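Long-time lurker. I teach an intro course on protein structure, and each term I like to show students one example going from raw sequence to a predicted 3D structure in token notation. This year I'd like something fresh instead of my usual example. Would anyone be willing to generate the tokens for the chain below so I can use it in lecture? Attribution to the forum is fine with me.
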Amino acid sequence: MAFLRKLLMFFAIVIGILFVVSFFLPKEASINRSVVIKASSAQVFDYLNKAKNFNEWSPWFEMEPEGKYEFSGPEIGIGGKLAWEGEKTGKGTQEIIESNPYQNIRSELIFDGQPPAYAAYDLEPLNDGTKVTWSFKVDLNGPIDKYMGLMIDSFVGDMYEAGLKNLKAKVESLPKQAELAIQVDSIEHKPELVTVDAQALLYVSNKVDFDADKISQAMAQDYAKLIGFMAEKQLNFAGPPLAITTGGSPEEGFWAFEAAMPIDIPAEVDDASEIKFKQSYSGKAVKLVHIGSYMSMSASYEKLAKYVADNGLEMNGNVWEQYISDPGVTAEKDLITHLYFPVK
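-- Reply from a regular --
Happy to contribute to a lecture. Here you go:
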């Protein structure tokens, strides 16, 4: 009995020590792995920004392809959600909660019965491609969680490395940016009648001389103001930036426009602020994909105007452009811009 009491006392002391030590352990666990993908940050971002693409490279889907998987929410960006359930992978959800074009994407993961965890993809443009850093972070609440957190790297490190290897192979197998531009040009470079949904927009109104350098400078300043406001108010991007024409032409020598940024939720703005909020146009529109320089759009606009006239359509508001490619990483000849004419 004396031996048993000593043994129990020994275990009690060990447990007590472990409990006390746990107060000094990290309150969160994290892991990250990186890979360089030979593709532009725009192409990598566009691929990762679609929740439904996750299972194409996920090591967990590879481990249990027979599990139950369900996608919901928007096809692109914030709100895209994957739910899964399997014997090996358990049960949970992964939802995109932040999406900053060509920079990073952040997702919330809910594992059955556990507090939220967060995963992120951070993109860094390089001369020969894009460095992708995939990270995971979770808060640790109790002593057991904190000790388990010390082993997170050994638990999932290999899975992250395998996933990034799959991601690299998948993205590098896609058409490169120049090839993609040719493909879009051959398939989509014709006007088409579409229906567009309203989006929440922040915008700044401006008017400049019809000069390429002045237009570029004005738009850069306006988008910087919008991004600064969004950061201050903790608002998220909900799509690529756009510009709405409100007046002017090359013949008149000026261009009046609204530099706009789609956001995920309505925003409150001060009446005196130059930054305004509104819902974008919704309804029928004629869309055309333009490939090339921003200053070479005249022919594309002529195609749109001809389509409207030939089909007996009537204009129904201001035209707008949406800038799909990132000019910082895409050659000017390969820039993709979506042009829209709203019609009745």
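Some talking points for your students: Helices lie at 2-22, 41-48, 59-63, 143-149, 152-173, 177-188, 212-233, 298-310. The domain at 24-174 is CATH 3.30.530.20 (Alpha-D-Glucose-1,6-Bisphosphate; Chain A, domain 4).
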